[in-house]
Amino acid sequence: MDTNAVLDVGVDALVLAAKLAAPILVTALVVGFAVSLVQSVTQIQEVTLSFVPKAIAVAIALVVSGHWMISELVTFTHDLFERIPTLVGG
Questions:
Q1: Distance between CA atoms of 71 and 16, rounded to whole angstroms?
Q2: Cα–Cα distance measured from residue 10 to residue 6, given in angstroms and rounded to the nearest whole number
Q3: Could you count the other beta carbons within 10 Å of the beta carbon of residue 21?
Q4: pLDDT in tens, the chain (90 residues)
Q5: Where exactly are the transmembrane stretches of this chain (predicted)?
Q6: Under 8 Å between Cβ of 49 and 35
Q7: What gap in Å lies between CA 82 and CA 90, rounded to an integer?
Q8: How far apart are CA 27 and CA 62, in angstroms?
Q9: What are phi and psi of 53, to 5 degrees?
Q10: What is the rounded distance in angstroms from the CA atom of residue 70 to the CA atom of residue 88?
C-alpha cells in the first residue's frame, strides 16, 4: 500500500463528507440568515426564534436528502471494499 493509495482514499472520504454535509449546512445557513434578517428588521431579539426554525429546517433537509446520503455512503463503502485487494497488494 503506497502513499498515493492512502491519499486517494482520504481525498475521496473528505469529498464525500463535504457532499453529505452540504445540504444540511446550506439549509442552516439560509434559514439562519433569513431569521437574522427578520430579527434585525423587527428588532425582536429572541434566542429561540433563531434556533427553532433552523432545527425544523435541518430536520426537513435530512428527511428530504437522507435517502441520497445513505445511498452515497453505501456506494462509497462498496467501492472501498472492492479496492481492498488492490490496496493490500494482492
A1: 12
A2: 6
A3: 11
A4: 788 888 999 999 999 999 999 999 999 999 999 999 998 898 888 877 889 999 999 999 999 999 999 999 999 999 999 998 888 875
A5: 20-39, 51-70
A6: yes
A7: 12
A8: 10
A9: -60, -35
A10: 27
- Give the Å distances, CA to CA, from 33 to 11, 18, 50: 31, 21, 9
**Residue closest to 61 by CA, chosen among 39, 13, 29:** 29
Cell of residue 11, nine digits: 481525498
Burial of 43 (0-12, 13-18, 19+ CB in 10 A): exposed
What pTM was estimated for this model as a whole?
Answer: 0.82
Q: What is the dihedral of CA 24, 30, 32, 37, to 10 degrees?
A: 180
Grid coordinates belonging to 81 = 471494499
Amino acid at 79: D
Task: Give SS3 for 15.
Answer: helix
